[in-house]
Specification:
The protein is of the alpha+beta class. The chain is globular, with a radius of gyration of 13 Å.
Length: about 90
């Protein structure tokens, strides 16, 4: 891990975080920096209810207020990993 930095990812019951490109980009950057990342969920039940949705996450189809931002995020991710490879990492 980079220094002693830790990355806590807090997720509410709607799990909208996983539809937002900037949120996913922040998670990707933490991963790239090899920060220790922890996911805090409302409950295991919510995770199980949304499991299929999470297994189909695709960064290329996420929401972004500015369409140019999504392209910038995708370009940055592709410097380190392919988009399908990134999606696979998110889904696992």
């Amino acid at each position: 891990a980079t220094g002693r930095c830790k990355h806590l990812i807090a997720v509410d019951g709607s799990m909208d975080l996983f539809n937002r490109a900037w949120c996913i980009a922040e998670i990707a950057e933490g991963k790239r920096l090899r920060m220790h990342q922890s996911l805090k969920l409302v409950s295991k039940k919510v995770l199980l209810q949304r499991q299929r949705t999470l297994q189909r996450i695709d960064i290329a189809h996420m929401e972004c207020a500015n369409g140019n931002d999504l392209q910038m995020i995708l370009t940055r991710i592709q410097k380190y990993v392919s988009i399908p490879g990134f999606n696979e990492q998110l889904q696992s």
